[in-house]
Design goal:
alpha+beta, two-stranded antiparallel sheet
C-alpha cells in the first residue's frame, strides 16, 4: 500500500502526523517519493493527504540514487537532525536518519 492509501484507510486525511518511521528492508529506495510527496491530485487540485512533521528512516545498502533521495527530502523542507549507524541489526550496512520538517520561512534569506 502507498502512504496515501494507508492514510485514507485509517481516516487520517488532512491530519498532522508527528512521526513516520520507515524501516522496510530496502524498499525506501523505490518508495521514498511516495512519502515525501504525500499529496493527492483531486479535481486538478493538489491537497495535502497528511502533514508529516518528522521522518525516521533506516537506509539499507547505499545505492546510486542515495544523494538524489537526500536532496529530494531536503527540497520538501526536511532537515537532518540525527544519524546513527545500525551496527547490530544490519552488520553495519544500514544507517538510521531522522528528519524534521521546518517552516518554509526557515529557508528564506533575510
Amino acid at each position: 500500500k502507498t502512504l496515501q492509501e494507508t492514510v485514507r484507510e485509517l481516516g487520517h486525511v488532512g491530519r498532522k502526523l508527528d512521526i513516520l518511521k520507515v524501516d522496510c528492508e530496502g524498499c525506501e529506495w523505490r518508495t521514498y517519493k511516495d512519502w515525501i510527496h504525500h499529496q493527492s491530485s483531486s479535481d486538478n487540485r493538489r491537497m495535502m493527504v497528511v502533514d508529516l512533521r518528522q521522518i525516521f528512516l533506516e537506509v539499507h545498502n547505499f545505492v546510486p540514487i542515495t544523494n538524489q533521495m537526500f536532496e529530494d527530502i531536503h527540497r520538501e523542507g526536511y532537515v537532518l537532525f540525527h544519524k546513527e549507524a545500525n551496527i547490530l541489526g544490519c552488520k553495519g550496512n544500514c544507517v538510521e536518519f531522522s528528519f524534521l520538517k521546518l517552516h518554509k520561512q526557515f529557508f528564506q534569506s533575510s
